[in-house]
Write a structure and sequence with these properties.
The protein is mainly alpha-helical and about 450 residues long. The protein has 18 helices and no strands.
Length: about 450
């Protein structure tokens, strides 16, 4: 009599998916730093145009991450069920959808670029620079979304290395091309936008070539794309809740004082970076949990979930300790302003204390996304925002709580999310077996 196989997965299988995913997540912010450094030498006005244009483009792409996360969930189930051709077929349909949505974003963006830039900047010169960059960069929108879809289906079939190579190839070429186009060629800010489009074109072409090699170039299937959009609807609403919270926090910090907004920017950028680090574990969870449920192994999915939660908690605790120890030195790497440095502690210790909470929340987000439980995550995020973050942010403005109020709001937001996802995880109701996602079963 042989023992039943362990429902756990080897730790190396988790990190085999998580480490390349972290590389993909970090590639774009690192490229943006290079782009900013190059354009920054043109002067304050082009830099302001890049900052606003880049923010607008990022807002659009952030709202459409369902093409990556939703595709991973659907593809992983089919992969776990041993239906690789259909899993790749999901990637094909996600790619068609990415092209369609990307063309719509391109057309609408060209029409709205000028009025939106003017409304956000309130300055005609900054708006002119923003529009000149954004109208070129928007030409890469369909390719940005194709890359998202490509990341999604490849993660679903547990191929994490090729997406990293494809994204790095595009960004590395663009990082070399950007200073050349901006300075020797003399295109200035527009050269930065062209380099951005080149990066997206190279990465998207590599993902498209991968689909050709799989022999899965099917025609658009409206039935599958509608199912993908149903899952996407919940993820878009969830993303909107995040954006409402984070934009409100920055707005309140800006209305508090110059020192407060500077300190918030420093700590918030560190929070965002560590979110990417922790999210890499969540991406591994999506792939592994989806595959287990697709193989009708709910017990294995639940064991993987518990394992991922432990990793997230340990990872978060380690990050908390590291950044607590780094406090005497790290803020000075971002600013020498005495007022900003004196204000940073009002946010820093919230940021440090929240790392273990974030480790568990992001891990369980990945588990539930892998299970296709997007409707629950949508409701949990919206509820946490409405009940916790948004009221405290605006109350802190009214009563003068400043950064303490803003980061208390984030703390309540994270604790509410933690409560929601822990209850859902312990209930086991998310562990729906089969190759179809819950959205497909409910249609």
């Amino acid at each position: 009599m042989t023992d039943a196989p362990s429902p756990r997965v080897p730790a190396r299988d988790v990190w085999r998916l998580a480490v390349p995913a972290l590389g993909v997540l970090a590639a774009e912010p690192l490229y943006v730093l290079v782009d900013t450094a190059v354009v920054g030498h043109l002067g304050a006005l082009p830099l302001a145009g890049l900052a606003l244009g880049g923010t607008l483009l990022a807002l659009v792409s952030t709202q459409l991450t369902f093409l990556s996360y939703g595709t991973t969930s659907r593809t992983a189930r089919l992969h776990g069920a041993g239906r690789r051709a259909e899993a790749v077929g999901e990637g094909v349909q996600a790619t068609w959808l990415a092209l369609a949505v990307g063309l719509l974003v391109l057309l609408v963006g060209q029409l709205l670029a000028e009025p939106v830039a003017l409304a956000m900047s309130g300055d005609e010169e900054v708006a002119e620079q923003t529009v000149s960059w954004l109208r070129i960069a928007l030409c890469g929108a369909p390719m940005i979304l194709v890359t998202m879809a490509g990341n999604g289906w490849m993660r679903g079939v547990q191929d994490a290395v090729r997406p990293l190579r494809y994204v790095l190839a595009g960004n590395a070429l663009s990082a070399v091309l950007c200073p050349v186009l901006v300075y020797p060629v003399g295109w200035g800010l527009e050269g930065s936008a062209v380099a951005n489009v080149v990066a997206q074109a190279v990465s998207a072409t590599l993902f498209l070539r991968a689909l050709v090699r799989e022999g899965s170039l099917a025609r658009p299937d409206l039935r599958v794309m509608r199912a993908q959009l149903r899952l996407g609807r919940d993820l878009v609403l969830r993303s909107l809740a995040f954006q409402a919270c984070f934009v409100s926090a920055t707005a309140v910090a800006a209305r508090t004082s110059t020192e407060a907004v500077g300190a918030h920017q420093v700590v918030w950028q560190l929070w965002t970076f560590l979110s990417l680090v922790l999210d890499s574990v969540a991406i591994a969870a999506q792939s592994l949990v989806g595959a287990a449920l697709g193989a009708r192994e709910a017990r294995r999915a639940q064991a993987i979930a518990a394992q991922i939660v432990r990793y997230g908690l340990i990872f978060g605790c380690v990050l908390g300790v590291v950044f607590a120890a780094a406090y005497p030195v790290l803020p000075h790497a971002f600013t020498t302003d005495a007022g900003v440095l004196g204000t940073i502690p009002h946010a820093w210790w919230f940021f440090v204390a929240l790392q273990p909470v974030a480790g568990v929340v992001f891990a369980l987000d990945g588990v539930l996304l892998g299970a296709g439980d997007a409707a629950f995550l949508r409701t949990a995020t919206l509820s946490s925002a409405v009940l916790g973050y948004l009221p405290l942010i605006w109350v802190s403005l009214a009563v003068g709580w400043g950064l303490v109020g803003i980061w208390t709001g984030l703390t309540v937001f994270m604790l509410l999310r933690l409560a929601f996802v822990l209850v859902r995880w312990r209930s086991g109701r998310w562990a729906v077996e089969g190759a179809e996602t819950p959205q497909d079963a409910d249609r």
